[in-house]
Amino acid sequence: MRIMGLDLGEKTIGVAVSDALKLTAQGITVISRAGKKNDFAKLKQIIDEYEVSTVVIGLPKNMDNSIGDRGELSIKFKDRMEKKFPHLEYKLEDERLTTAQAQRQLIEADVSRKTRKKVIDKQAAVLILQNYLAKLK
To answer: What region holds the YqgF/RNase H-like domain (predicted)?
Structure first.
């Protein structure tokens, strides 16, 4: 059983999955959002393919640790997932600055701006999941 990490955006969902030993996170895909039905159908495919048991959703918090509008949307998304996939365990993981960190990593790896735009959410999902996995050790 693996753990899936999600970075939720308005237009995309970055997806990462742990290895079987739950030590490392690998970026899997970026889902282009096209309505709840489509989003959940694609997530179900990944959940089934990778035998996911836990879903870690990035929770964007404000720097003062409060939860703003984007954080509320992440909580609502988690609630919808719990109804759609009740057999899974769900966790919210603080994702402050993960997108900025992902951007820096991609720039350091000399990834072009055009390519960065396509993979930034997947890389942010990797960081969210990797942070969660580090806490399990």
So the answer is: 1-102
Tokens of 42: 């694609």
CB atoms within 10 A of CB 106: 18
Q: No. of H helices and E strands in the chain? A: 4, 5
Q: What is the residue range of 77's domain? A: 2-136
pLDDT at residue 90 in the model: 97
Q: Which of 54, 38, 50 is nearest to 5 (CA)?
A: 54
How many domains does the chain contain in total?
1
Helical spans, DSSP H, in 57-112:
69-84, 98-108
The CATH number of whichever domain residue 79 belongs to comes to 3.30.420.140
pTM over 0.70: yes
